[in-house]
Design a protein that fits this description.
By secondary structure, this protein is α/β, with parallel strands linked by helices. Helices cover about 40% and strands about 15% of the residues. It is built from ten helices and seven strands. Strands 2-1-7-6-3-5-4 form a seven-stranded mixed sheet, with helices on both faces. A hairpin with a 2-residue loop joins β1 and β2.
């Protein structure tokens, strides 16, 4: 099983606390062939999980939190790669509107929660208030304190009502985060992932660390514990997170009726209209060297 840090009553176990006090050493990257083979197997299990969720009318909520560049987005992509977007969807909310700022804080997240037979993956969640809003001063002290009080109540209500809530914190070192930021600066395909807010997290590393620790103290509850995924190696993080998620849900393979392709009926005189009457996409592939 993957090494996942579990907290109880806001404090890590003594052994885990000692281990976490040291900066992580260099992590050996999982070999690509091993990674791809195991990822494929786990993704097949995710498809079985999806069918079970649909058949049972279950509601699954998965929260992804962690540092910027910790690997949350890439893990979500691997989770959803072969899933039906009508069953498994991603909730990645933008900054609240002026109207939403006047609502109860959890209100805009509630409308994205799953109905029966759905899985919702929150790419960041209501924990924005305990992280970026707290550190960057986007909320008042009163709003922050109210969040820490209400969040465990909110999550207990979700679980009590039958939702399967899983919360994952992706942990990455400051050195690895900076390395990933630098690689994005030089990559035109990923530069959009960087924002001034992301870069601000470098100079506020310790502020974010303290905010995360305080968040865990108040919100690591028995009904909805935090699971910490070590993310120095993104391949290992993806495998570990998916394997753990599957291990926490009592799904089983759902029997589906066998499907057979029907025989194609005999032609009845239909003729396709001339291609010249339609606007064709230019054959760009013909210009490529093969």
């Amino acid at each position: 099983m993957p090494r996942l840090v579990r907290f109880r009553d806001g404090q890590p176990h003594a052994v885990q606390r000692a281990a976490m006090s040291k900066a992580p050493g260099k992590v050996k990257r999982l070999r690509r062939d091993v990674y791809e083979s195991e990822l494929r197997r786990l993704q097949a299990e995710l498809v079985k999980l999806q069918e079970w969720v649909r058949a049972e009318g279950a509601r699954v909520v998965v929260v992804f939190e962690g540092r910027d560049a910790a690997g949350k987005g890439s893990t979500i992509k691997r989770v959803t790669e072969y899933l039906n977007p009508r069953v498994a969807r991603i909730a990645a909310l933008p900054a609240p509107t002026d109207r939403e700022r006047t609502q109860w804080y959890f209100q805009r997240y509630v409308e994205h929660l799953p109905a029966g037979g759905e899985i919702v993956l929150f790419d960041r969640s209501w924990y924005n208030r305990a992280g970026v809003e707290r550190v960057m001063g986007f909320c008042t002290q009163q709003e922050y304190t109210r969040f820490l009080h209400q969040c465990p109540i909110f999550e207990r209500l979700l679980v009590e009502d039958g939702a399967l809530l899983r919360k994952y914190w992706f942990s990455v070192s400051d050195a690895e985060q900076e390395r990933r930021f630098r690689s994005r600066l030089d990559d035109p395909m990923r530069r959009w992932k960087l924002s001034p807010m992301d870069l601000e997290s470098i100079s506020r590393w310790e502020d974010y660390s303290r905010a995360k620790d305080e968040m865990f103290v108040h919100t690591d509850i028995p009904e909805a514990p935090w699971y910490v995924v070590e993310s120095e190696d993104k391949r290992r993080a993806r495998i570990n997170m998916i394997a753990h998620l599957l291990s926490t849900i009592p799904y089983h393979e759902v029997e589906r009726p066998p499907l057979e392709l029907p025989p194609r009926p005999a032609p009845k005189g239909y003729e396709r209209s001339p291609r010249e009457m339609q606007t064709q996409v230019p054959d760009h592939s013909a210009t490529l060297r093969t």
